[in-house]
Amino acid sequence: MPELDIVTAFQCDEGSRPIKVRSSSDPDKVYTVVPGDEETEPSCTCRGYRFRGTCKHLKEAIRHRCGWHSIYDGSPAMTDVHKTRKICPRCGGRLRVVRVGV
């Protein structure tokens, strides 16, 4: 098995942050959804998620999640300002430092 080099990378942290998703059947209802990522379990406050473990609100949130990664996504390019302030160059969200084997 080849040896891997461990490098520092940046990844958009938006998957771990809760977002609000409006119900399609009742516009007065808004659910809190966490799309989830490698460190955060997905969740939704709707009854369907509690019953089935998945729901359309979670699927919608995942579809709109940024997911930018400095190694796997070369565009848009990361500048020194993005690195210093830990700002995602794609969505403007928070970046987290990750270690990746390459």
Task: Describe what this molecule looks like in 3D.
This protein has 102 residues and is an alpha+beta fold. It has one domain. 20% of the residues lie in helices and 25% in strands. It has helices at 47-52, 56-63, 80-85, and strands at 6-12, 19-22, 30-34, 43-44, 95-101. It has a three-stranded antiparallel β-sheet. Strand 3 and strand 4 (43-44) form a beta hairpin. The longest helix is centred in the middle third of the chain and has 8 residues, at 56-63. The radius of gyration is 16 Å and the shape is elongated. The model has no long low-confidence stretch (mean pLDDT 88).
Please supply descriptive tags for the structure shown above.
102 residues; alpha+beta; three-stranded antiparallel β-sheet; two-stranded antiparallel sheet; 5 strands; elongated
Helical residue percent band: 10-25%
Strand order of the largest sheet: 2-3-4
Number of helices: 3
**Largest sheet features:** 3 strands, antiparallel
**Percentage beta strand:** 15-25%
* Number of beta-strand segments: 5
Task: Report the order of strands and helices.
Answer: EEEEHHHE
Q: Which stretches of 5+ consecutive residues score pLDDT under 50? A: none
> Tell me, what's the shape?
elongated
The N- and C-terminal alpha carbons lie at a distance of 13 Å
Summarize this entry quickly:
It contains 3 helices and 5 strands.
